[in-house]
UniProtKB/TrEMBL annotation:
One of its GO terms (molecular function) is metal ion binding. Keywords: 4Fe-4S, Iron, Iron-sulfur, Metal-binding, Oxidoreductase. The lineage of its organism: Bacteria, Pseudomonadati, Pseudomonadota, Alphaproteobacteria, Rhodobacterales. It comes from Rhodovulum kholense. PANTHER family: COB--COM HETERODISULFIDE REDUCTASE IRON-SULFUR SUBUNIT A, FERREDOXIN:COB-COM HETERODISULFIDE REDUCTASE SUBUNIT A. This is FAD dependent oxidoreductase. Pfam families: FAD_oxidored.
Length: 454
């Protein structure tokens, strides 16, 4: 490939703080809140114009759809996201669980409110592009924005970009699932104009279960057996019919999935139906193709729903997510990488920073936490190798594929994010690196913040 040299340049330091959090999804938002509440100054840096990550930018509204009566959870900031959203009219009861579904638009306001109340310095519309290094220690970040390049300096940095952008550029080792076996990407959408009564009658007359997720075609699913007969808001039949009638080409038997919330106003949101293989979320050309192909498939899916799904005859596209939804990119090679055994067999760790119910969803596995089983989450899975002053929270922590089918979930990202935020704050206050922080003090502060760690 041809190359050019960029001239060296001076960059203004526009802000200095204790903890910089890069990325504001469930992981980053929780990290920023936890650090601020633990008593340090925090800047929350986000490339888009709202906080919330996949919740707001992609439209992923199912925050805790795994929750049943016996489910045991960490509580903490993840639970607060749901409770605050409910209080602010930005959540509705979820159809398959004892949880609330977040409203992707309303959650923008919830996140603003939480950030303001905690006294976090908000820095939207800034994309992280490079680390500022002092030897092997990260001491700040460079962002690009309409203002050009800017530097932000901090004593500790938390990478919550979902893609380990900061860790990767700072020189920490990362790995990616090969493209062919990556979790699919999805273009998400919301509908307007659905007849609620007719739609719900259709669902009740032909209820789908989690077993139906594995109903042939591109879809296979491993459950623990207890999930098989449980209700799932799954839709596939209209798309099979559309293939039979020649409306959708046969190779698009990947169009199927779940609906989210159905509002009295006729909006049917969080339509998780379009799945695209081999989209690499770290490659803009691959993302470009995915966005365009995803929108094309969405319109086929909507036409099939209009023709073959009760209540959808007058439905129309209300909006796409602001960006394509990416599930699977870089993970750090951490001080400890979580394993399939840890998530399947209730892993226990001395350095636990929170617990997570036995909820595994991804790579063809669906296990729901209906029994009270749970795992602990180790602090070391957030510690990258080779770079000091840096923690990685959210979906790019260290772990194998099946471990990620549990830890990628938004409420798990929030638990891990809260742990990262508290640890970064404790490191700043004690003048130590995050790799040497007093874990008893971290666990104590997490308990004070309402997190269950054992
Ligand atoms: C279509 C889809 C459906 C899903 N369904 C569910 C579900 O039902 N339930 C569930 O629990 N999970 C679900 N997931 C998974 C879940 O949404 C993610 O794993 C989770 O949001 C990851 O959280 P995070 O905080 O690590 O990252 P994200 O939510 O991805 O947030 C990362 C943030 O960092 C910002 N960012 C990224 N790079 C930069 C940069 N260089 N500079 C500045 N900012 C940056 C992004 O704009 C974003 O705001 C789904 C995912 C997808 C894609």
């Amino acid at each position: 490939m041809r190359q050019i040299s960029e001239p060296a340049r001076q960059v203004d330091v526009v802000f200095e703080t204790d903890v910089i959090v890069v990325g504001s999804g469930p992981g980053g938002l929780a990290a920023a809140l936890a650090a601020a509440r633990a008593g340090v100054d925090v800047a929350l840096v986000e490339r888009f114009g709202c906080f919330g990550g996949n919740i707001t930018a992609v439209g992923v509204e199912g925050f805790a759809w795994y929750r049943h009566e016996a489910t045991i959870e960490a509580g903490g900031i993840g639970r607060e996201f749901e409770d605050r959203a409910k209080d602010m009219g930005a959540a509705v009861p979820e159809s398959q669980s004892l949880s609330y579904e977040l409203d992707s638009e309303g959650f923008k306001l919830v996140a603003d409110r939480l950030v303001e109340e905690a006294g976090i310095h908000p820095m939207l519309h800034r994309q992280f592009v490079a680390p500022v290094m002092d030897g092997d220690r990260i001491v700040g970040i460079i962002t690009e924005s309409k203002a050009g390049r800017e530097a932000i300096l901090g004593k500790m940095v938390i990478d919550a970009t979902g893609d380990a952008d900061v860790a990767h550029r700072a020189g920490a080792p990362t790995r990616m699932t090969p493209r062919e076996t990556m979790m699919a990407a999805s273009v998400m959408f919301h509908l307007a104009g659905v007849d609620k009564t007719a739609f719900m009658e259709g669902i009740k007359s032909d209820p789908q279960t989690y077993r139906d997720w594995g109903g042939g075609g591109e879809w296979t699913i491993e459950t623990s057996g207890k999930e098989d007969e449980m209700f799932s808001p799954f839709i596939k039949k209209p798309f099979e019919r559309a293939i039979q009638e020649g409306l959708i080409p046969a190779h698009l038997n990947t169009i199927a999935g779940t609906w989210g919330a159905l509002h009295d106003t006729g909006e049917l949101t969080y339509m998780n139906l379009v799945h695209l293989d081999a989209v690499d979320g770290t490659d803009p050309d691959s993302l470009t193709k995915g966005e365009i192909e995803g929108r094309r498939q969405t319109m086929l899916a909507i036409e099939a729903l209009r023709r073959f799904m009760p209540g959808c005859e007058g439905a129309r596209l209300r909006n796409f997510g602001m960006t394509i939804g990416i599930r699977d990119t870089r993970k750090i090679d951490a001080a400890y990488n979580m394993t399939e055994t840890d998530v399947r067999e209730q892993g226990r760790f001395e350095d636990s920073i929170g617990i997570y119910p036995e909820f595994i969803d991804g790579y063809g596995i669906l296990i729901l936490p209906t029994t009270g089983r749970y795992m602990q989450l180790p602090y070391r899975a957030m510690l990258p190798k080779r770079v000091k002053g840096l923690l990685v929270a959210g979906r790019s922590t260290g772990g194998d594929r099946i471990a990620h089918a549990a830890t990628r979930n938004m409420s798990c990202c929030a638990v891990v994010g809260q742990g990262a935020g508290v640890a970064a704050a404790k490191a700043v206050k004690s003048n130590r690196d995050v790799g040497e922080v007093d874990l008893t003090a971290v666990q104590g502060e997490l308990k004070r913040q309402g997190v269950r760690i054992d």
